[in-house]
Amino acid sequence: MKNNIISIALLIFILLVSSCSESLDDINISPNTLPDTEVDIKFVLAGVISETAKIATNLAYKSGDLSAANQYLQRDFTSYEENNYQWGANSFSNYYEPLKDSDYIYKRAETEKTDEVKNYYQAVALIMKSYQFGFLTSAFGDIPYSSALQAEKGGDEFFKPTYDSQKDVFIGVLNDLEEANIFLKNTDICTEAISSDILYAGDGQKWRKLANSLRLRFYMRLSEKNDADLNVSSEIASIVNNPSEFPIMQDNSDNAFVSYVGTDSDNSWPGGALNYSNRSEFYRRKPSSTIVNNLIDLKDPRLTKWVKPVDVQLAQGPTNQVVLENNRVKRYIDVDINAINTDANLENDINTNLFVGLPIALSAPNDFNLGGTLSDVITDIGNLDENIYLNAAANPHTSYLTDMYSENTHELVNSMLMTAAEVKFLLAEASFRGYISSDAYEYYKEGIELSFNQYQITDGESEAVYDEANNTLVAFNQANYIANVKLIYDNASDKLEPIIHQKWIALWLTTESWFDFRRTGYPNLNSNIISGTKGKQTPVRFIYTDAYNEENMLKAIDNLQPSENDQWSTMWLLQ
Known about the structure:
Blueprint: E1 8-9, E2 12-13, H1 24-27, H2 41-62, H3 65-69, E3 73-75, H4 96-112, H5 115-140, E4 143-144, H6 156-159, E5 163-164, H7 166-183, H8 204-221, H9 232-241, E6 256-258, H10 280-283, E7 285-287, H11 289-298, H12 302-306, E8 312-316, E9 321-325, E10 328-333, H13 337-341, H14 374-384, E11 415-418, H15 420-432, H16 440-454, E12 465-467, E13 472-474, H17 478-491, H18 496-506, H19 512-520, H20 550-558
Parallel strand pairs: 8-10
Antiparallel strand pairs: 1-2, 3-7, 4-5, 6-11, 9-10, 12-13
Helix pairs in contact: 2-4, 2-5, 4-5, 5-7, 5-8, 7-8, 8-9, 8-15, 15-16, 15-18, 16-18, 18-19
């Protein structure tokens, strides 16, 4: 089954999936211009999934806030305030469309569909709405929920909805996911939705696994709240111990992702040329030193899947020169690299590795690793290798993302909503916390292996691992890797640390690790911050903006600690 992001223009749902039998002329109509019965909700469903996927990718890759907070990416070139956590306000309107349309599907299905088809649509609507509301309350705190999405009823109650408490929103989300699981108990394939369901091709049991896996995600997010109304430990145990009633994701065939068609800017991965004809937008999004160094230390093959070697490696030398050695361009510099790297100034360090990430929250990232001196050697580099990128946002001494992230579509570059690997790490944590009786290490190991499989990494793959000591690429030995991570796990004084660390790696370029870091402190991202807006602190929430509903917004701000609408105040979840 192939998942595809659908191209949508405003409320026009044009199905791009090649297996669709309906003509495009029939589909290319706005729900607002015809009676409801003239536009089947399966086309609205395609839009809900597509927009949700695009929002997820925007948060994780295109916009800089969370990719910097998770320390997956850093930016340079024209603007890089996100690196230093200078966050601005974030509008609910950015997330409105799939929420409203999910509600629309649910209501239409109530009167227009029957039996398991009705159950399928209503369950999927609840799942998609819960996914989005679960993210929003986790990111902001209190949000409009119980009276939201109902403006058509009129009156201030719905035009200016109250902000529900974060606890109540989570309870509502979890209840809706449980209801979705019940709806789907006897639902197999919804044949009429095969083409328009670009996540699971109408497979009700796949959706059921997603519903219960999301319940695990949100219950674990609540793990630090000792609240009888939530009953986190018993609810997680109930899900895990009753797989026939509460099936969850087991392998990568269950992953909830949407891939990119790559035919126009609206349905292409944002790093591709159809979105950014000016290639600086791709090159300025550089992998961070945190993810690069962690993968180097682990001899992890995911490094070479995600990150390119530098185009021009730096090295200590008696004179300044650019040469070609072993088919690689190398720049020798006569400064004392060791002295520079051991002084108190972390901004000017020089990294001579073959893989180099951009450090966290630099005040001048364009100057990192002699990037500011590129003009001195740009002609020499170009003469030695004309294929090296030397235009806007170039720093040949720093790594870029691999070429698959510069393409409009690639089978390994998708909008990922949830994976089986994440579920395995959730189960590992549940076992560590004593919620379930299974072996935490086995779940931890399975999560790592699923992540390898997700990125098509195979045992014995040549030149897949960077050997830093010998500055060379070597074959991947999976048995050695697993032995090493078991040693790390066994030696950890707090077993949660290696679990969350490997989960952070596996959830590369998604948003989920921000929530894990806030509640566990793992991995210790704060220690890597060099020139952050608030010292060595990572933001913990999105900033409200709701001018039309300001009175209710101000009440929600009062529930923060301290009562300030900024990225540093803690919501109920973190208090």
